[in-house]
Write a structure and sequence with these properties.
CATH superfamily of the largest domain: RNA polymerase II/Efflux pump adaptor protein, barrel-sandwich hybrid domain
Number of helices: 0
Structural class: mainly beta
Largest sheet: 5 strands, antiparallel
Distance between the termini: 30 Å
Oligomer: single chain
Shape: globular
Number of domains: 2
């Protein structure tokens, strides 16, 4: 599934999320050891509590901004923004191709693009973090 390299209190760990992170409990592999951990959405970066339908918003709002998550699985066809770019509601952020159809993901509110977590040509899962929009 998803792999991360994290640093915690000066130590670096290789972490792999083995299950769908939208579940209440998931298995994670940390440096070859498997653990079952609870998952809880926070106010800062809220994970979808259930699968999103493509007709629903793909942006999840928190106190300091929002994260844009994939409303459906597919391939990133194009990214229309860059980090530091100011966007307005309705601006095109990126396009996800799914089942030979282009699905345009648009900004739900004004902000500044923060970290972009995907690249063109990459396969994304439903609910996967795509990019951040800061206040």
């Amino acid at each position: 599934m998803k792999r991360y390299r994290i640093t915690l209190e000066g130590q670096t760990f290789d972490v792999e999320v083995l299950d769908d992170p939208r579940q209440e409990q998931v298995r994670v592999k940390v440096d070859r050891q498997v653990f079952t951990v609870g998952v809880e959405a926070t106010a800062e970066v809220a994970a979808p509590s259930r699968p999103l339908r493509s007709s629903e918003t793909s942006e999840v709002f928190g106190n300091s901004g929002s994260v844009v998550v994939a409303p459906l699985p597919g391939v990133i066809k194009s990214i229309g923004v860059r980090s530091g770019q100011r966007v307005a509601p309705g601006d095109e952020l990126l396009v996800i191709e799914a089942m030979k159809m282009d699905n345009v993901i648009r900004a739900q509110r004004a902000g500044v693009i923060g970290v972009i977590h995907v690249a063109e040509g990459r396969q994304v899962a439903h609910g996967e973090l795509l990019l951040e929009v800061n206040n």
